[in-house]
Amino acid sequence: MSSSQSNGSNGQQYDVYYKIRHSTAHVMAQAVIERFPDAKVAIGPPIKDGFYYDFDLGREDDGSLRTFSPEDIEAIEKRMRQIVSGRYPFDKRVVSAEEALDLFSDQPYKVELIQGLAEGGVDEYGDKIEGAVEISTYTQDTFEDLCRGPHMEHTGKIPPDGFKLLSVAGAYWRGDENRPMLQRIYGTAWKNKKELRAYLDHLEEARKRDHRRLGKELDLFSTNHEMVGGGLILWHPKGALMRHLAEDHAKKMHLEGGYDMVYTPHIGRSVLWETSGHLDFYKEGMYAPIEIEGQEYYLKPMNCPFHVHIYKSHIRSYRDLPIRYAEWGTVYRFERSGTLHGMTRVRGFTQDDAHLFCAPEQMPDEIDKVLDFSLGLLGDFGFEKFELFLSTRPEKRVGEEAMWAASEQALLEALKRSGHPYSINEGDGAFYGPKIDIYVTDALDRPWQLSTIQFDFNLPERFDLSYIGADGSQHRPYMIHRALMGSVERFFGLLIEHYGGIFPVWLSPVQAVVIPITDDQIDYAYETAGKLKEAGLRVEVDNSDGRMNAKIRNAQLEKIPYMLVLGGRELEARVVNVRLRNGKRLGTMSTDAFVETANQAIAEREVI
């Protein structure tokens, strides 16, 4: 089954890519079954840019899971091209549940899917199917699969030079780590060879920019699943320096923007999380409690309840509002081990979190300021393309309708004034308030969700927040959650991939390397480096053995912006010969002139 079973009458449209990829997944499954006749087949849907299919190959004689070898993948792909050339029709037939169970009696995963369809009206993901349930199969050549379609007319419609198998990974059945581990083959399929080639080139560029690879090559961070634990980042000196530079700039902007910095603990008593509602609504994302003197404490998954208590520490007047608390607070959330991914999906991360408390009449102006602040700060890090989303009230929600209407309208008007494209996700807001999500587009034209501006009608009510209004009576403040980078770790991973490790000069951990050609220039190299450091630049001296060209190559591999080559003539004239990491030569200049050049690049946040 490669997509959920339904009667197909819901008007869903399928483009040609969907049909190509869906059909190619079936062809791949046939090729796998021919090579591994005892394999059990699970599901294989079309996905963005490709398809996958999950298989249970059983176990080896020693009890270990049988997996696909590179030779298997090569043979499977070769057989797929033969099947494609056979021009076998994709024939659909509708069957009863009894017929389906008999047909797939030797396929336990299919049996489970059929039972779900027949007894519960749910698809392979456990989601309820709207309308009548139709069980159908598709056959091409010798292979019949449980599937609702659609497919191409016949296998010959699959471009023979437009598909390729890409990788193999483990995947739990139905995403449940308590269920069997299956072998998943990923592939891609396109209309023609040219499109396939373009996509593979895109993948190669993404591979080169992979933050996990570059993080190791540039010595920025690491993880250690065996000793430290999965999803926990170790920041190395160069990565930590970059983080410091980014946070320092952002904190400066926050202070200038009227925010007050706060710090809060990493743990809190269970009563705090009971009052906030996290133990009711978010417990599966929290770690087990820690018992201290007979009381239970939890690692914090969020910072907001602490900021609420800072607000409650004084009686507040309308004259005090708006209050804006900001914190780079580290939080801990449980993520399944199979979902962890470098810095972009972790278990411990730091949020550039802020919570704003304001009077209702201040709310529109605060939203404008937050949105402008968010877009401006992201722009400082080199992001220029944004897409914004407004998520509105869901069916189940808290708060008065008037508050929802006012906050949604304020968010909508702010989006309109921003001048950036936006969409509305009806009913996709949280139960406690509407929100704006900001997506940035990286250098490979990939969208990343970063900033969130979230209203909250829940916590002010749960913690009984108030302020004294101009009329002398108590009023409930509006509360706005706001994170700009979101997770600092995820943001850092995005920065690495966006720039491909070639960072702007202001963010580069090492901005220049001084390269003496011979031992005669070593003293001058350290003298030059000292002057540059006094001027505020981050500089190293390459005093290693080796030829000049090898040192230049090393500096380029480390993606250092400037290389200052010193030979006999430079020593005699007391100048530096400047090269850029991209190979361009700026020629000889005085140390002061180079400082001016570098400072200009820093001020303008240039990438060189």
Overview of this structure, please?
The structure is a single chain. The protein is built from 18 helices and 28 strands. It has 608 residues and is α+β, with helices and mostly antiparallel strands. The protein folds into 3 domains: 188 residues, Threonyl-tRNA Synthetase, Chain A, domain 2 (2-Layer Sandwich); 241 residues, BirA Bifunctional Protein, domain 2 (2-Layer Sandwich), CATH 3.30.930; 92 residues, Anticodon-binding domain (Rossmann fold), CATH 3.40.50. A hairpin with a 5-residue loop joins strand 21 and strand 22. Helix 11 crosses helix 12.
Layout of helices and strands:
Blueprint: H1 16-35, E1 40-41, E2 46-47, E3 50-56, H2 70-85, E4 91-94, H3 97-103, H4 108-120, E5 136-140, E6 143-146, E7 163-172, E8 181-189, H5 193-209, H6 211-217, E9 221-222, E10 234-235, H7 237-256, E11 260-261, E12 267-269, H8 270-276, H9 278-281, E13 290-292, E14 295-299, H10 304-312, E15 323-332, E16 348-358, H11 363-380, E17 386-391, H12 401-418, E18 422-425, E19 435-441, E20 447-456, H13 459-462, E21 467-468, E22 474-475, E23 478-487, H14 488-499, E24 512-516, H15 522-534, E25 539-541, H16 548-557, E26 562-566, H17 568-573, E27 576-580, E28 585-589, H18 591-603
Parallel strand pairs: 11-15, 17-18, 24-25, 24-26
Antiparallel strand pairs: 1-3, 2-3, 3-8, 4-5, 5-6, 7-8, 9-10, 12-14, 13-14, 15-16, 16-23, 17-19, 19-20, 20-23, 21-22, 26-27, 27-28
Helix pairs in contact: 1-2, 6-14, 11-12
